[in-house]
Amino acid sequence: MKLIADLQQVFVDRYGDGDVTPVDPAEFAPPLGYFAVGYVDGEPVACGGWRAHDEARDSLRPGDAEIKRMYVADALRGRGLARVVLASLETTALEAGRRRMVLETGLRQPEAIKLYESSGYARIDNFGVYRHHPESLCFAKEL
């Protein structure tokens, strides 16, 4: 999908490499996951998904939904599309019985940090492949 390729290029531009988190598309299949794509004039312009976590590990708890691959095309940023995708992820996760949203972002993504903080997300200890990464920030929000 072009949106995911564009997102990976953002990571390369800002960090020197792509996202190294292992992601299997099957993890986003309901009921243990969800993936949304937003369209404007028939063109995909925004996306994001969540995948379930049901074992305690690092700062993850059973019942968590991890946000992955949130992205809005450059030309359409600043129009509230990320908030629409985020709201969709939170709603579908809650409907699927998830109790908390978690995510990882990076220090070089200030727009993402601002979105999450202004949407009620608070810092938690880093988890997964990023638990010791100095440029990673992890956040959570109770649903």
Any idea of the CATH class? Alpha Beta
What percentage of the residues does DSSP assign to strands (E)?
25-35%
Cα distance spanning the termini: 29 Å
Q: Return the CATH architecture.
A: 3-Layer(aba) Sandwich
Backbone CA Rg: 14 Å
Helicity, as a percent range? 25-40%
The helix-and-strand class reads alpha+beta
Quick check: average pLDDT? 92
Helical stretch tally:
3
Uncertain spans: none
Q: How many structural domains are formed by the residues?
A: 1
Biggest pleated sheet:
6 strands, mixed
Summed up:
The protein has 143 residues and is of the alpha+beta class. The chain is 27% helix and 31% strand.
Descriptive notes:
- The protein is α+β, with helices and mostly antiparallel strands and 143 residues long.
- The chain has a single domain (2-142), classed as Gcn5-related N-acetyltransferase (GNAT) (Aminopeptidase).
- It has helices at 2-15, 81-95, 110-118, and strands at residues 33-40, 43-53, 64-72, 100-106, 122-124, 136-142.
- The model has no long low-confidence stretch (mean pLDDT 92).
